[in-house]
Specification:
By secondary structure, this protein is an alpha+beta fold. The chain has 2 domains: about 1-35; about 55-230, no CATH class. The protein is built from 5 helices and 10 strands. Strands 2, 4, 5, 6, 7, 8, 9 and 10 form an 8-stranded antiparallel β-sheet that branches.
């Protein structure tokens, strides 16, 4: 009799384990479907490094000038150019696009605004990663057929979140045929010994009208620097 009771007890305990496992599996599936960020955060944390989750804000731009593209300002998030270990690595989950990626997304909208639109500058407004990506980009365009007007497009992650005509007297220019992306600009700094201990916080892509060349401007902890793209 005792053996029968023990077998029944074991049977029901096993049933409880199976039911509990099924419930946990269903809960995990529901979280994965409706709260995917939790799984993404866990995946990123396993890689090591400090995860930066930004609260992105669309700027209230009413006008822009070409000088804005040439001036690179330090932002709050400093990313080591040459992290020595995982603790120094900065991971920005919302950083989805490089300069070229941002332009590819915005260019069709700029053409809809004005078929002869030309880029004036592209500026990171969010954190910048070592692969040249940012969580937020501001792109400025000009048009000869719309004097004293410009067009601003703001991208967050990989979506356009704002597009509007604003006042501007800035003049844009065609991109060069062969130009390297923002990841190449970051890599060029990583290779220089004077930047071995430096951090970066912002990237601009702008046209220098005096030299008639496009350049990258990068804000670093030891000052801003610029790199010609060809």
């Amino acid at each position: 009799m005792n053996q029968i009771i023990q077998k029944l007890k074991t049977f029901f305990e096993n049933k409880k384990i199976v039911i509990a496992g099924a419930v946990l599996l269903i809960l995990a599936l529901l979280v994965w479907l409706f709260m995917p960020d939790i799984f993404e955060k866990a995946r990123i944390d396993l890689q090591g490094g400090r995860v930066i989750n930004e609260q992105l804000v669309v700027p209230e731009t009413k006008e822009f000038v070409a000088l804005e593209g040439t001036t690179v300002y330090q932002s709050q998030i400093q990313v080591p150019l040459n992290p020595k270990n995982n603790a120094e690595k900065i991971i920005v989950p919302k950083a989805a696009l490089t300069v070229k990626g941002g332009y590819a997304l915005a260019a069709p909208e700029a053409i809809l605004w004005s078929p002869d639109s030309k880029p004036v500058f592209i500026k990171s407004l969010g954190a910048v990663t070592l692969d040249g990506k940012s969580s937020q980009w501001q792109l400025a365009f000009s048009s000869k057929t719309k004097p004293q007007k410009g067009y601003e497009i703001v991208i967050q992650e990989n979506l356009i979140v704002s597009k509007k005509e604003v006042d501007s007297g800035a003049i844009g220019a065609d991109f060069p045929k062969n130009w390297f992306d923002s990841d190449g600009a970051v890599k060029s700094l990583q290779a220089l010994p004077q930047f071995s201990e430096a951090t970066i916080s912002a990237i601009n892509f702008f046209y220098n009208h005096d030299a008639k060349r496009w350049r990258y401007g990068i804000a670093t902890s030891i000052g801003s620097t610029s790199i010609a793209v060809e």
